[in-house]
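Researcher: I need the complex structure. Ligand is zinc ion. Inputs:
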Amino acid sequence: MKISCNIIRDMLPLYAENMASQDTREIVEEHIASCENCKKQLEEMRTPEELPIDNDITLLKNIQNTLRREKLQTIILSVMVTLVLAVITMAYLTAPAYISYNENAISIIERDDGTVLLNFSEEVSGFDVNQSPAADNSGYVYDITTWETIWDQKISKNNLENTVLNPNGETVDSIYYYNTDGSENILMYGDPITDGSVVTLPRLVLNYYVMFAIGFLLICGIGLAIFRKNEKIRNGLEKIILLPISYLFAHLLIMGLRSTSYLAGRDFYAILLVAISLYCALIAGRNILKKLSNKKPKSTL
Ligand SMILES: [Zn+2]
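Model: Output:
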């Protein structure tokens, strides 16, 4: 029996959708091998219909872009939150636990060439030295303290190198060990600088930064209250006010309620790192919140 093109065309839809039986497939394939018209028909069935060009497409594209931006912001937010947690963890692991004075923690070796060597025991993770000229200008007075960290105890056994106290040959008048509990400094080497007691005090600089941040926060707060009706200024102020908020939060996370520090430099950098990542997280979070609250009224338009 001769199979006409019409019969083949009835079969083509099934064939194109891969729903035809093996027998039908064979018949169709045999036919289109020798019939250009039916082959063409099949190819047309297989090319997908082009989407009608419509204004809806730009709308779809906009939605797609918005979704992409939101996704990006969510990613930034999670990265920043992770960063904050990582910095806090690192700050905690490397937070100095001060070692109160004991003769084993640190020993002082005087060498023939006039240099003075500090030799630390294994428990010491780090040390701090303050150098100040002696009252009679005969040389220098050194205040030293040492500490250990959880990081060094539990994770890496980093042995502290011996350190030359006066690499440029300064005269070492006396060396004191200071404790961070407010108790008297202990003379380790040389002559006492006064007849009375010497106490090294923690630095107050972080205290000033906190006060500055609080002042800045108040100014921004007042600005927000004044300009709450001006959307442009309010938007800008909302972004700026997050700066002191981030700093104060970071301070709280790193220092707790303390604001004095014997290692103000280290603590300040840790606070700054947390504050920066916290700020980015807050900005990303704010944008996401803004978008969510904008979405509801928009969908009713
Ligand atoms: Zn045909």
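Model: Summary of the prediction. DSSP finds eight helices and eight strands in the chain.
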